[in-house]
Write a structure and sequence with these properties.
The protein is an alpha+beta fold. The protein contains 12 helices and 24 strands. The protein has 3 domains: 80 residues, 2-Layer Sandwich (Phosphorylase Kinase, domain 1); 257 residues, Transferase(Phosphotransferase) domain 1 (Transferase(Phosphotransferase), domain 1, Orthogonal Bundle), CATH 1.10.510; 141 residues, Jelly Rolls. Strand 3 and strand 4 form a beta hairpin.
């Protein structure tokens, strides 16, 4: 079996996703309905063959929008196969590995959707049998889908699943979504949950911030009969059935409006991506089937029907509201007894949708503004040890500004530089005058407060820059050089324009002398290259040539009435076809500068890419195209932005038009200009 083979005359094999123990899992193309499907294949004499067909028949009786349905099952050519609906998106194990544990409300909503689908199967007597994070998928539209209902367990050689096993795995899914650890009965690649004294730790002991109702639910389903507070939860809720778990989680989530839209906006893979599904394990011995995995320590024995400890309430009954807050006790009185029932939180619909689906992630190993978390197993609560117990001291007071002197100090010896700020100089001279006599200053006449005369020294501005600024001479030199370069560039442009050339035209011949405009390669008109020869290129085909090798000369004979054509294909070229394309290699006889390629095509539309090389290519996957075009009609002209130099021009057809009986392309004439 190879990619491209057709099974049962209908399913064309595309990608082999997993192969182990004689079983294969394929992504295939349904040629009748033109859609992708998932294909499980084992040999007809394999011990799993009969169980696989029986699981497919039982899974087909379950009708629920969350399931990837069984579409076909049969035996043909010594093979037994089952066809399932194809799913694309991110599985729960991929989500946990990429972004870590989910937020409480997001996790509860996702598992409630899975529980509703499992409950639909239990109502008709069909169990999943291997419900792990790898079989829970969130597609690109934000919908939750369940993979391999009853079929996956048969592929792994397990006995038909039981309802009690599915219920235990539902608790494991919620535990894994909240903590990133897997405690379920079925096997999974997600890291296992921590165990202490034969008991799986509660979610709140693994990760802080998990709401108590979800913590109690996980502990009761994963660790039944261990004496935890969750044993009282069965008195008011049905936790022994998938429908009871779905109702409990739906009451916690509240209004689920727009949750699927928020998941779709989270960026799950679209329908063009391949979903990573679990690999098939080695088959069990041929004389017996592998038994179902044993339940964890303390779990009830699996049977056909779940065991109910007490008569549960109706499945549709919502959890009762939590008790009203009790008044503060009087001094000296005993505190009131705690209500054993866990209070359900109010509906989280009032919270922002982004905050409930993607809560901020923080580490419990480092101190934060709230302090360090302290876990108290006896009181079953989380207390915070604040890192700061007393307020911070106030900042020191500002220092008093220095007193302003009544008179300015005497000027220093040496030359005095005038300030560049006349207003500041005038204000300083009016405020701090002193008589300097007839030396060392400039003479001024006061105009306010009466007439008078005196000598005033030049005021020094402390913010003035010194005359010799470091680097100023280099800046001046750089400015002079830039001006010279601009002048030289202007002279070159003026000279070229005066000679009829492009502004920056150059000649490759070297030497001086006058050149006419016709001698410039950039300004010369392209001309048709003669003496062309052609050959076909089909690197993905098997020799001898199958692309009408005997007709290649008709594409360069100068007669539009004759043409070379490809073979007729059932599918168009591209990722979904059997080939990425075929081509025609045109030999120019010698190396030329190619600037244009003109094609006269047969049929429309046709897409193609052009390659210019020095050697005849044997494949194009490692080459860089010089042009890519899509011709809506029979005539196409590709103008290269930058002329390319080479001897061989390859026209690689990437999409061909529809024709009688399939798809077929052709080239009537090729003209290369340069």
């Amino acid at each position: 079996m190879r990619p491209g083979d057709v099974l049962a005359g209908r399913y064309r094999l595309v990608d082999l996703l997993a192969e182990s123990g004689g079983g294969r899992f394929w992504r295939a193309q349904d040629r009748v309905l033109e859609r992708h499907v998932a294909l499980h294949v084992v040999a007809q004499d394999d011990d799993r063959a009969e169980a696989l067909l029986d699981a497919a028949r039982r899974s087909a009786t379950v009708h629920d929008r969350h399931l990837l349905r069984v579409l076909d099952a049969d035996r043909v050519d010594g093979l037994c196969f089952v066809v399932n609906e194809w799913g694309s998106g991110d599985s729960l194990d991929v989500m946990l590995g990429g972004e870590g544990p989910l937020g409480p409300r997001r996790a509860a909503w996702l598992v409630s959707e899975v529980a509703a689908a499992v409950a639909a199967g239990h109502r008709v007597g069909v169990a999943h049998g291997r419900l792990n994070p790898e079989n829970v998928l969130v597609d690109h539209a934000g919908a939750v889908r369940v993979i391999g209902f009853a079929v996956d367990a048969a592929m792994f050689g397990l006995e038909p699943g039981r309802a009690s096993t599915d219920v235990a795995d539902l608790g494991g899914l919620l535990y894994a979504a909240l903590t990133g650890r897997w405690p379920g009965v079925s096997t999974s690649a997600v890291p296992p949950a921590p165990v202490e004294s034969g008991r799986v730790l509660r979610p709140r002991q693994v990760r802080a911030g998990i709401p108590r109702p979800l913590d109690v639910l996980c502990d009761e389903v994963v660790n039944p009969f261990t004496g935890s507070d969750g044993s009282r939860l069965r008195e008011v809720h049905d936790l022994a059935t998938a429908q009871g778990i779905a109702d409990y989680l739906a009451a916690f989530v509240g209004d689920p409006t727009r949750l699927a839209e928020a998941e779709a906006a989270a960026g799950h893979r679209d329908t063009t991506d391949t979903t990573a599904l679990p690999a098939v394990s080695d088959p069990p011995p041929r004389d017996r089937r592998a038994p179902a995995p044993p339940p964890p320590s303390g779990a009830p024995a699996a049977d056909d029907e779940p065991t109910r400890l007490v008569p549960p309430l109706a499945a549709s009954a919502a959890p009762p509201p939590g008790p009203a807050p009790a008044p503060a006790p009087a001094p000296g009185s005993a505190p009131p007894p705690e209500d054993p029932r866990p209070a359900m939180p109010p509906s989280l619909a009032e919270q922002p949708l982004e905050a409930s689906l993607h809560p901020p992630r923080r580490s419990t190993d480092l101190p934060t503004e709230a302090g360090l978390p302290v876990f108290d197993d006896e009181a079953d609560e989380v207390r915070w040890l604040t890192a700061r117990t007393e307020p911070s001291p106030p900042p020191p007071p500002f220092e008093d500004p220095p007193e302003r002197p009544l008179f300015a100090p005497e000027p220093a010896e040496g030359p005095v530089r005038r300030s560049r700020h006349p207003a500041a100089t005038a204000a300083a001279a009016a405020s701090w005058p002193w008589d300097q006599g007839s030396t060392g200053g400039a003479r001024a006449t006061g105009s306010s407060g009466g007439a008078g005369s005196g000598t005033f020294p030049a005021v020094r501005d402390p913010e003035d820059e010194p005359e010799d600024v470091p680097g100023r001479s280099w800046l001046r030199l750089a400015g002079v050089l830039a001006a010279c370069l601009l002048l030289m560039l202007a002279v070159v442009v003026a000279y070229n324009l005066g000679r009829g050339r492009s502004p920056l035209a150059t000649f490759s011949g070297g030497g001086g002398g006058d050149h006419s405009p016709s001698a410039s390669p950039s300004s010369a008109a392209p001309r048709a290259i003669t003496g062309l020869r052609a050959n076909d290129l089909d690197p993905q085909g098997a020799p001898p040539y199958e692309e009408h090798h005997e007709l290649v000369g008709l594409a360069v004979d100068g007669k539009p009435s004759t043409a070379w054509s490809t073979m007729t294909y059932d599918q168009d070229f591209g990722p979904g076809g059997l080939k990425t394309g075929v081509g025609l290699v045109v030999d120019l006889g010698a190396s030329h500068r190619v600037s244009e390629v003109v094609l006269q095509l047969v049929g429309a539309p046709t897409s193609y890419s052009l390659y210019v090389t020095d050697h005849a290519p044997t494949a194009v996957k490692d080459l860089e195209p010089v042009a890519t075009e899509t011709a809506p009609g029979p005539h196409s002209k590709a103008v290269l932005g930058t002329p390319a130099t080479g001897r061989y021009v390859t026209v690689w057809l990437t999409s061909i038009p529809a024709a009688d009986g399939g798809f077929r392309g052709g080239i009537a004439e090729v003209s290369v200009l340069g």
